[in-house]
Structures are given as structure tokens and as C-alpha cells.
Amino acid sequence: MSGNLGSPTPIQPLSVGNVVSAGIRLYRSHLKDYFLLALRAYIWVFIPIYGWAKCYALISLISRLAFGELVNQPESVSSGERFVNSRKWQFLLMMLLMFLVGIGIIVGVVILFALFGVLSAALVGGVGQQGNPASYLLLIAIAIIITIAAFIGVLWLLTRFYLVDVPLAIEENIDATSTISRSWELTQGYVWRILFISFVTFLITIPIQIAVQIVLGIIQLVFSPLILREARFFTVVYSVLILALSFAGSAAIVPFWQTVKAVIYYDLRSRREGLGLQLRDHEI
Questions:
Q1: Cis peptide preceding 10, ω within 30 of 0
Q2: Alpha helix (H) ranges present in the chain?
Q3: Beta-carbon neighbour count of residue 273 at 10 Å?
Q4: From the CB of residue 54, how many other CB atoms can be counted at a distance below 10 Å?
Q5: Each residue of 165-189: pLDDT tens digit?
Q6: Residue 265 — very low, low, confident or very high, per pLDDT cuts 50/70/90?
Q7: Which of 97, 94, 101 is nearest to 168 (CA)?
Q8: Angle at the Cα of 180 (from 178 to 182), degrees rounded to 5?
Q9: pTM recorded for the entire structure
Q10: DSSP 218
Q11: Angle at 30 between CA 27 and CA 35, to 5 degrees
Q12: What are phi and psi for residue 148, nearest 5 degrees?
């Protein structure tokens, strides 16, 4: 990838291939550090509230470190961790706010389909309408349109919040509420491009997910007869192995997503704010 992708104004957008390949290169060059950070983050999940805040902060730290590499301002893990730890409660508040946003989206979809139910009852409940095939065909067509529209709408909304954790992990003078509005601002007009990048990223992670599922299946086959003989001991060992492998698999995938998010964030800031950032050539 070129080391001079922060081109003069107007700044040209990075292609989908460049974004994903930059994420891969960052991921590969810092695999150990990013993997261990993600693994530590998942271990914190077992501690309610405080651990959840630490988990989200550590995962977001990966994006901060990746962004520092992109703009040729690398930062040590310890330094970056001190920064995100100082905002861990803001990360927790942001998680709560996004949970409420998710609830709002679900309620909106439920209301939409409830209105469709009322419309359906009105359409087919009239005198002489019960046996009219045209009424049912119309309802099916409307249902399909509403379902597609709802799916696209939810996808669009979720993508507008795609970067909520990144500004909070990187920018100064930002908090749980402003990082949400910041993501909304940065992603405006680029939803479908971000979705396409996410789709390509998902395809790349499929082999890891398949490998994890295969190993999980092998462990299940090995332990199934043992569990029947000594239920308590082997059940505990089996559960620990499954949990450890699941965490390790997730810890291998999440850093790649976070590095891709860092590249998207870099790209959007470069073009929206004319930062003229130089994308570092890592020689990796």
C-alpha cells in the first residue's frame, strides 16, 4: 500500500481493497499485542460493570494504536492503555446509551409491523374481502416491502453508529454522548461504502470462524463419552476448554475488525476535515 495516501485536497477516498488490506497489514504486524489485548478484554467480561467498562476500553484501544500507526505517530500499549482507562466509565456510559438506542430501534420496528397488522385487518376484514385473493396478494407485497425497508433502515442506522468507540479512544475533549454524534457525523454519506467494507471484512474472517468451529466439534466428540463416565470432572474440563477456545477465537478476530475501523476512521477524517494525513508505509 502506498505510503502517501493522504493526497492533496480534494483528498481521494481509499478504495475498499486499500482499507481492508491496510487493516490486514496492521493486524499482521501487531498480531501478538492486539491478540493479547483482546484476550485480556474478554477476561474482564466476568466482572460486572467495572469489567465491562475495561473490556470495551481495551478493545477500543486496538483502534487507537492502529490509528497511531497509520498517521506515523505510534504509541506504546501502556501509554494508550492509560488514556483509554481514564475514560473507562465514559465507555460504559456509551455502551448504555447504545443499548437504549438499540431498544429504540427495536421498538420502532415493532410499531411499524403493528401498524401493518392494523392495516391488514382493515384490508381483509371488510365485508366481502375475506375470500378475495387480490387482497392477500396485496398484503404479501406490502409485507415484503415493509420487511425489506425495515431491514435496510436498521442496517443504515447501525452503520451510522459504526465508529462510536473510535473517537472516544482517540480524540481529546470528547465524552460518551459526543462520540455517538461524532460517529453520526463522520459516517454521513458513506453508509453503503462502510457496509461493503464490513462485508468484505466478514468474508475474510470466515476461515478463522470455521477453524474454531471444527476444533469445537472435535473437542465435543472427544469429551462426549468421557462426560458420560465421569460427568462432573470432565464436564468442568470440557466447559473450560470450550470457553477458552471461544475467547481465543474471538480475540483473533476482533483486532482485525478494530484495525479496519481505524482505517475507516482515518479515511473519513482525512476527507471530511482535510487533515492531509499520511498513511504510513509499514514495510510489513
A1: yes
A2: 16-29, 31-44, 50-70, 77-85, 88-124, 133-160, 165-170, 176-186, 191-229, 231-273
A3: 11
A4: 22
A5: 999 999 999 999 999 999 999 999 8
A6: very high
A7: 94
A8: 70
A9: 0.84
A10: H
A11: 80
A12: -65, -45
